[in-house]
Design goal:
With 455 residues, the chain is an alpha+beta fold. The protein contains 14 helices and 21 strands. The protein has an eight-stranded antiparallel sheet with strand order 14-11-13-12-18-19-16-21. Strands 5, 6, 7, 8, 9 and 10 form a six-stranded antiparallel sheet that branches. The chain has a four-stranded mixed sheet with strand order 1-2-4-3, with helices on one face. The chain binds flavin-adenine dinucleotide (FAD). Flavin-adenine dinucleotide binds next to strand 3, helix 6, strand 10 and helix 10.
Length: 455
């Protein structure tokens, strides 16, 4: 094993019965996520791997691993679906990678919430909710592969966020069961606002075993695309649909230059039209259609979910959020991207100015969302990759000239990415849940060597 400084024999004995894998290729494949969206992060993470992958099959085995890494002081990185974009589940200091996907039991449905284990794939959880006439308030566009625990610890919001806000907004998650990393592990239960101590902490301060999530009544959303002449018109339509409170789960605005990356859509997204991909409540679809016409748009396609695949289509959410970026990067690796929040009130003219200013260097894509109860519009533009210096000049320009806020997807600490500042509540909680500083080391600037508990 690469890291001979750790007592691997002792560790393996301590986790006896828990499945583990040491094959180099297997370990390397479980040491990566989607950091490759960023050439800047690729330089940091390219050759980083863990030493061993453990795949516990139940909570008791997870606890045994937690106790063993604490006893032998081995770094621990948790992995859900491995779809994070910032190297959140790439181990910077080697050690143990723990795959959480076998913790996949749904524990209890309540009238408008579900209690579940954290390793369950979001699609399986949401499908089970839908069988009860309920649905998740939101999910990332990686619904098919991501886990709910990975979404809690690494994500921020996504499809559904224009209806229900961001993941961290009050009430969306009401309970977490967390296990600490100590030779005698403890269980800590967090309720209500306390969950913020662990939310979006990149698995640095405790292992989430269980969570309770709010649900709403499920709808048979109509997945559709609408075409407009002009990106400003597409943006104005999406904004007006949201202001009018048309019941949508997704409103993704994508400019015409993306159409070449959406070749499967062919004439459904031609290169002389700008598109809005939506999920619309069936009972409001007639009104939606009339509204499209009144705003000079045309509906390109509209299907219920079960009719998408037979018509050669994927769900609308896979045209949105960071799937839009993925469609482009799959075809052309000379692009990377940014995450931009716009100043309030949102002004489409600012986007049109940006479009002119950056020309062929940026292709635009916007998402309608809500944050803290207010409408918030984000962009996830494709940006021509021209190295670190140019990227940070661009970020500086968007912030200083246009008063946008950038959630930097080329940074790998919690603070340098979305959160901007050290969250002392999360660091205080880390002192309790990970006193030896073993979890995902290097991912939070708030944790200092002098905080490490010495036995
Ligand atoms: P992983 O990548 O496996 O892990 C994420 C973090 O959570 C890691 O730090 C890991 O250590 C930690 N973690 C995992 N399980 C646990 C646990 N049980 N306890 C504590 N910590 C844990 N994100 C969005 O927010 N919205 C989007 O719409 C969105 N769209 C995306 C589209 C594409 C194409 C891609 C590649 C990514 C997208 N993402 C998006 C990022 C990512 O898919 C989501 O955040 C997703 O929810 C992560 O889940 P995961 O299971 O893959 O987590």
């Amino acid at each position: 094993m690469k890291n001979s400084k750790f007592d691997w024999n002792g560790f393996k004995k301590a986790i006896s019965g828990v499945r583990f894998e040491q094959d180099k290729d297997f370990v390397a494949s479980r040491s990566k996520d989607y950091f490759w969206y960023s050439p800047i992060l690729s330089e940091v993470f390219e050759n980083k791997t863990g030493d061993i992958v453990v795949i516990p099959s139940n909570q008791e085995e997870v606890i045994r691993v937690a106790e063993a890494v604490a006893k032998y002081k081995i770094p621990l990185t948790l992995r859900g679906g491995g779809t994070g974009n910032y190297g959140q589940c790439v181990p910077l200091e080697g050690g143990v990678i723990m795959v959480m996907t076998k913790l996949d039991s749904i524990l209890q449905f309540n009238e408008s919430s579900v209690k579940t284990e954290a390793g369950i794939r979001i699609s399986r959880l949401d499908d089970a909710c839908r069988e009860k006439g309920l649905e998740l308030l939101m999910y990332p566009s990686t619904r098919q592969t991501a886990t709910i625990g990975g979404f809690l610890a690494g994500g921020s919001g996504g499809c559904g966020s224009l209806r229900n806000g961001m993941l961290r907004d009050p009430g969306n998650i009401s309970y977490l069961k967390v296990v600490t990393i100590e030779p005698k592990a403890k269980i800590i239960e967090l309720h209500g606002e306390e969950i913020q101590k662990v939310q979006h902490a990149y698995g640095t301060n405790g292992i989430v075993l269980e969570m309770e999530l709010a649900l709403s009544k499920s709808k048979d959303w109509i997945h559709c695309a609408t075409l407009f002449d002009g990106y400003d018109n597409a943006l104005k339509f999406a904004m007006a649909a949201q202001e009018k409170s048309l019941d949508c789960y997704l409103l993704t605005v994508v400019e015409r230059r993306f159409s070449k990356f959406y070749h499967k859509l062919s004439d459904r997204f031609p290169n002389d039209k700008d598109a809005v991909f939506s999920m619309v409540a069936p009972e409001e679809f007639n009104e939606f259609e009339k509204f499209v016409v009144s705003m000079n748009g045309t509906i390109s396609f509209a299907f219920k979910e079960e009719d998408l695949r037979p018509n050669g289509l994927q769900p609308a959410y896979e045209f949105g959020w960071n799937h839009t970026t993925l469609q482009a990067l799959k075809m052309d690796k000379s692009w990377t991207y940014l995450q931009v929040a716009y100043p309030q009130p949102f002004d489409p003219n600012l986007v049109m100015k940006q479009m002119e200013r950056y020309g062929e260097d940026i292709f635009w894509h916007h998402e309608m969302a809500r944050m803290g109860g207010h409408v918030q519009i984000f962009a996830l533009p494709l940006v021509k990759s021209r190295g670190r210096e140019k990227m940070y000049e661009l970020i500086d320009e968007l912030e200083s000239k246009d008063h946008c806020t950038i959630y930097d997807p080329h940074a790998y600490t919690i603070e340098d990415g979305g959160m901007k500042e050290i969250d002392n509540n999360q660091i205080e909680f880390k002192k309790l849940a990970d006193p030896y500083g073993l979890m995902n080391p290097g991912k939070t600037r708030g944790w200092k060597d002098e905080m490490v508990k010495r036995d």
